[in-house]
Amino acid sequence: MTVNRKRIKSRPAAVLIGFMGAGKSTVGKLVAELLGVDFVDADEEIVRVVGRSIPEIFAEDGAPAFRDIERRVVLDLLTRGGVVSLGGGAVMTTAIADALAEHRVVYLSIDPAEGYARAQGSDRPLLAGEDPETRYRELLNERHDTYAGLATVAVDAGAGSAEQVADAVVAALADYLIPERNFP
Ligand code: S3P
C-alpha cells in the first residue's frame, strides 16, 4: 500500500487525490472525522469563492479559467490544516503537483468500471460529451501515473464501504501522522 516516503510538511493532515467517482469527498470527510480535524473539499471551496457551480464556471469561463481558479484555491488550502480533497484534474496543474510533493498525499484509486458507474449521470463537465465512458477511461489512463507518482500512500477506493476505505486510509497514513500537535 505504501508508495513512497518523502519530506512532509505538518499541514494539511492529508490531501486526497484521485479520479472522478473515487469518493474523495465522502471518504475525505470520514477521514477528517476519524482524525478529529476539519475537512475541506476544494471543489466546494471553488464554488463558494466564485459563487457559481463548476458546470457554470466551465461553460461561462472555460476550462483554463477553471484551472486557474482551482490552482489559486488549492494552493491556499494547502497552507491550512485538516483533510483536503482535490478535484480529479487538480494534480495536472504543475504548480499544484509541485506543492503536493511536500504533503501527505492519499491516492484513492478506482477501477474504471466501478468509477464510471459512480460518476455517470452527474453534471461533471468533462463527462458531458458524446461518449462519456470512453472519455472517462481515457482521462483516467492519462492521469493514473501522475496520481501514483504524487502519492504518499495509495488506497483502493473500490474495496468496501466508504467507512472501510476511510479506515484503510487512516491505517495507511499511520506512519505519517505521528505527532498529534501537528494536527491543526
Ligand atoms: C474534474 C473533476 C471534478 C471537478 C471538475 C474537473 C477533473 O472533481 O474538479 O469537474 O478534471 O477530473 P471530482 O474529481 O471531485 O469529480
Automatic annotation (TrEMBL):
Substrate binds at D43, R67, G88, R143. The keyword Transferase applies. GO terms for cellular component: cytosol. ATP binds at G21, A22, G23, K24, S25, T26, R124. Pathway: Metabolic intermediate biosynthesis; chorismate biosynthesis; chorismate from D-erythrose 4-phosphate and phosphoenolpyruvate: step 5/7. Binds 1 Mg(2+) ion per subunit. It is an enzyme of class 2 (transferase). It catalyses: shikimate + ATP = 3-phosphoshikimate + ADP + H(+). It comes from the Bacteria. GO terms for molecular function: ATP binding; magnesium ion binding; shikimate kinase activity. It is found in: Cytoplasm. Mg(2+) binds at S25. Its cofactor is Mg(2+). The keyword Lipoprotein does not apply. InterPro entries: P-loop_NTPase, Shikimate/glucono_kinase, Shikimate_kinase/TSH1, Shikimate_kinase_CS. Its EC number is 2.7.1.71. SUPFAM superfamilies: P-loop containing nucleoside triphosphate hydrolases. Keywords: Amino-acid biosynthesis, Aromatic amino acid biosynthesis, ATP-binding, Cytoplasm, Kinase, Magnesium, Metal-binding, Nucleotide-binding, Transferase. One of its GO terms (biological process) is amino acid biosynthetic process. Monomer. Catalyzes the specific phosphorylation of the 3-hydroxyl group of shikimic acid using ATP as a cosubstrate. Belongs to the shikimate kinase family. This is Shikimate kinase.
